[in-house]
Give the backbone structure.
Amino acid sequence: MSHFRADVRQRAEELVALYPRRRSAMLPMLHLAQEQDGYVTDGAIEEIAELTGTTPAEVRGTAAFYDMFHLEPVGRYVVGVCTNVACLLAGGEDLLEHASRTLGCAVGGTSEDGLFTLEETECLADCNIAPVVQVNHRYVRTTTPEALDQLVTDLRAGRLDADVPPHGTLIRVRRNGGLRVEREELSAERAAARAARDARAATEAK
Amino acid sequence: MTDQTTTSVTITLNGRPVAAQPGELLIEAAARAGDYIPRFCYHPRMEPVGVCRMCLVEVEGPRGATLQPACYIRVNDGMVVDTGSDRVKKAQDGVLEFLLANHPLDCPVCDKGGECPLQDQALAHGSGETRFIEEKRHFEKPISIGPLVLLDRERCIQCSRCTRFAAEVAGDAQIDFAGRGDLIEVAPSPEHPFDSVFSGNTVQICPVGALTAKPYRFTARPWDLEQVESTCTTCAVGCRVAVQSSGNRLTRVLGVDSDPVNHGWLCDKGRFTLDSVDGNEESTDPLSPATRIATPLVRRDGSLEPATWGEALAEAARLLGAAAATEGGVGAIGGAALTNEGAYAWGRLVREALGSDHLDAQYGDGLDPVLVQALPAATIDEAASARVIVNLAGDLRETLPVLFLRLRAPLAAGRGALIEMGAGTSSLAPLARVSLPTRPGEADRVAAALCGDAVDHTLTLGEFDLAEARSLLGEGEGVVVVLGRSNLAEDPAVVESAARRLAQRFPAARFLVGLRRANVRGALDMGLAPRLAPGRRLREGGRDALAQLAALREGRQRAVLVLGGCLLGNVMDAEGAREALERADVVVVTGHGGATLQHADVVLPAAVSYERYGTVTNLEGRVTALAPKLVAPGSAWNDVAIAAELAHALGHPLDLDSIEAAAREIERTTGYPALSVLTDPHVEGVLAGRGDRVERRPLDPMAFPGIRSTDTVGLASFAGAVAQPDAPGAGRLGEPSLADVTTRPVSVPPPDAYALGLVVDHRLYDRGIAMTGSPALADQVAPATLGLGRVELDRLGLAEGDTVSVRSARGAADLTVALDAGLVRGVARLAANSRDAAGVDVVRALVDADATITPIRLETR
Amino acid sequence: MASLDAPRIVSSRSEFADSFTLARYLATGGYEGLRKALTMFPEAVAAEVDAASLLGRGGAGFPAGRKWSMLRKSPVSYLVVNGDESEPATFKDHYLVERDPHQLVEGVIIAAYALQVTQAFIFLRGEFALGLERVQQAVNDAYDHGALGRKIFGSDFSLDIVVHPGAGAYICGEETSLIEALEGKRGFPRIKPPFFPAVTGLYGEPTVVNNVETMSNLPWIVTHGGAAFAALGAGRSAGTRLFALSGRVNRPGVYEIEMVKNTFRDLIYDPALGGGVVDDRPVRAFIPGGVSAPWFGPEQLDLPLGQDEVGAQGSMLGSGSIVVMDDTTCPVRAAWRITKFFSRESCGQCTPCREGSGWLERIMYRLEHGGGRAEDVDLLLDLCDNIAPGLTWPPAQTTICVLGPSIPSSIKSAITMFRDDFLAHAHHGGCPHD
Ligand SMILES: Cc1cc2nc3c(=O)[nH]c(=O)nc-3n(C[C@H](O)[C@H](O)[C@H](O)COP(=O)(O)O)c2cc1C
Ligand code: SF4
Ligand code: FES
């Protein structure tokens, strides 16, 4: 029995087909799993192991290496505040502390209503609008305590649902179907091209 | 085997020229030249990864000397290396200081204390005072990561030896790193504990006390230990081991790196069932495998009573002697667990003192002994370096675990090709180049197809697969066939004729016969088999084990000498055997109790496993020495002594007054290298018949912590005690040929579309004495399940855990089903000696030992 | 005065709000470079890139043309684009993938053609949710447009591009670690040798890895010729470059300016660029090329923005990101935060990096937050020396990858430039600025 919903399973299988080796689909598939469940569950780990030809320990070990994957449940909105050097110079630490007060949870923790998880992040590569805040990996460009409070209010009211989909990053990233280039067919083509190139090089050398 | 033709290169090591093999790792070349470079993550039996950075040395390059990991850099001609410069020292001291920064200071309570490479390095190089005043990293104290292994994450130095072993060597990555940076930790997946049958190896190679074995934990301190080097007798691979004890208690078994055999690895059964040797002190019931038989027993008024040796020998001599005087009167069954010397002595006793030819070390679950001797033999090394391996032995991980590791290594590295000929039970199957589905009864016909005969239409071979297999085989050069008894519910003649056929068609092919029991090969070599005399020579006649049991049942044989206490646990038809023993006079020679003793009239207590001195022979024919670490309890004797005394009591002295005397006689009369192996402390093993002798080598203390740090005793203590045979080569080993093999025609009934072919096979964690008598492992024996492939489950609408009624021509049983993903279609699988929930022996209920195959039908309930 | 008359090469569409769409791209000369390239022999395309003297923009500054030509002899199997951009204060690839994804895709197709590769991967940092959407959309559109897939624009050349998300790990920017992540593993950098993925890369096959910005330059180079590119800048540093400016400046942002012709002072102070330091305070120090680079002080403000020029002064232009610290900045705090970053991001394989970063971070934390000792300063330097022996630039290393020896950069810089601040911290029992 599949842990993935039918549509997620289908996307997972599409992902496997995209790569020359199935284990390569590991990271996008973990993102998908997180999209479905909010975090990487044991059930998803089993299924990903099967789909990628690995063991559950390897899937778990791989997931645990990456900051974006959560192995424990998190809030519907994961709020990340950067405190790395550019943001530090722009007051990132204060903003993080403020966010912790507003959300009523410690850094790394989840708010009582289970809606928000607060994280201190490393540089998010948007340093011109510092301190940088992301919610579910969408830049919200909120740099002041007041703006952050407004953001939290808007998120609670569901006003930003279109911009900030719950969980996951890949929800709107999908390869158009049927575009795959057949690898086997191509190898002959490539070989011919290389032979032509070598022939040119040979004539040039003369 | 190293290629002698490779020319060597010269490197400059610390200012002097040193010869090295091209492409050799610098760390190895330097060690050979006497410059030992410190290390943690490097292990000579795994691919280098260069992560601990302890082995940094200066290597001259285009941009001057740079620090490079010696475990990863390969030497090339003209390389200039400095292993002791100030820069190297500073870098190595720096790494050591970093490793110790977060390391807990709990050496006094750590199992590894006293044999810890990190501790040794710290003492050798460390400054003694720490500059680290921060709070150390904290983890919850030891967590259980599997049934046998505990992990103390605070002590881990992230060398990745354990995770690499699991993934790379065992091929089952049940543990892996999780996390990142200094929070990285070894972890299994929560749902899947680390229950690999090789888990103990990770404990052995952990260079700190992070991984500890539950059975060993806190049982001893290294400085209280003494060890001998010996051979594991749990199965026929013959892994070399260091056997350690504290006082007269066995505490630990560690794998020794034997180049031709085990490369330092052991399976968990071999490593951890040492606790079954001593037996349970409380247990006195002679019918329990947990009981150590330490005094002779004689049946009086229906019950076994302790007796003196004199009384027991007299009674045994009376019963056996009387039987010997009757027609067809007496025979012996068992002996695969004896030493070569013991087997030889008992063989002489039966043949000379009892005048019988009925001898059989196998229990009807083996192969034709003459065929075993006649097939052109391959060594483990030859199989591991074969161009093509053909597996006809089923799941080697379950039967000969370390052979599985040895064969898996080249296949996983992409060297050699595997042709899998089986019912889908093999753990090597995922690495197979070609899989030829072979259902019960089909092996000979599949072999015929491989030989180029017309393909039987009832087979389910893929056309391309068969063509590829044939082309891989070529004319048989570089082909090694691993032969075994992969299905006990199938007449052995099926696989025997397959092997014979392959041997005739491909004369260049070699065979590694995977008989499973400890010294079964040695017992056959010593003539404990019908048609074989000591030294691989042919002789006439004799009943095998099953024929003896039948004769006993039918009153044609009156008495039986049972060599080893587990007869009833080993024959397929235990009920029939019970009936046979009930009618017979039974003398049992054993170290442990067991159900067989219910029928014994006399029980003679023998020394077992690590109490014994002598030689054993592994499946490839390599003879190695057993060194005793323990004194046998009570008045148990060694087998040579028991046989000699009993022969004396029978009035036919054997003139074997010591184990060495037996070894000398073996070597003198047959050329079998028993005495030379036994008495030469330099030799690790000799391949019988080929003379190929392996010298004992020093072990890298970092690769084998716990062995080098322990005092070795007893290794050389027997050296020189006995003179070499007067005339070396006086005896010569016999060489039976395929022409000597008597073919038994076998007819396989046509397939029945509604039936499944039953495979009954041995599992590592079985119901034998070692497992059931071992507190550490007993609870790992799985309850009986009927394995079915996915197709079969779906077809029958079954889910794992459902119960089905199983019916065969012989009988019926109710069994729980389990998914056995690899099984080919039309096959079901059951473990030998399985018990259902009510304790009923389901194999016996279903399998007729005389039938060619065992078709079964399932009914869902 | 800054020299701003060089053409905008990679940021030419910045004034358009819809710069990321295919329509806008085609309307502004999009895919013309590719069409032109397809009329040339692949090696001629590579020769243009070689002539352009395009230095890799990922941090190491290795010439793209040379990297490709190393592979002429053995065919390349895969092209991998590095869009992991996680070096703190670097945000120019973020700009490119969100604002001009087609330019990147076109660059990748051109490179693949030059290398005769049929499979390319664009690895993007997982946190770039929008960037991933836009690049995937661009790939989908390029397929529909005939610029990707079988027989591109009717030529004999075919290519597939897979967009691959990262998942939050700085180390995956290191090319061998990136390849591991692409193989579905944890991002452990591979041990060297081999020194280049060109020898054994993805799936053990020869692989070229180039940065997003490096790729984005290709459409222009092919359209205008390598010589036109090489005519910009000076010496080895040809062309323009995206500089990401952040910290205590009035106008932080991404600026494309000509290399060498401008100095750090130009970038920080020109009203069209950084617009000066906040509140007109003095520059105390600045990081010239990402946090792995040693710091500079006011005396280096007039150094030209060129790879060799910066290298000669003991630092690097690296990822092209400049962080400005003024006299309100506590250098100990800045260095501590950078050390904390490395300690969080060390992959954990190598002992010196894993244990060293954590230890250094804890000492730095004590100094900044109380509990520091004067002797900690020398301890810091000695521990740094155990990670990068000699503390020279470029650093010697005891580790597998250069993340390890990057850790000491900020600590050593801060101690060398501001030792008194460290001692004041020790003395004061914490940060005197707080
Ligand atoms: C720790 C570390 C992080 C790196 N991060 C990045 C990165 O985020 N993006 C990038 O393009 N290159 C990064 N690099 C450099 C890459 O290894 C590689 O040199 C580069 O992608 C090659 O592309 P280029 O030649 O086009 O510059 C990093 C290197 C190291 C050692
Ligand atoms: S230097 Fe650090 S980041 Fe690089 S491989 Fe080693 S531990 Fe990993
Ligand atoms: S790095 Fe060579 S032994 Fe660990």
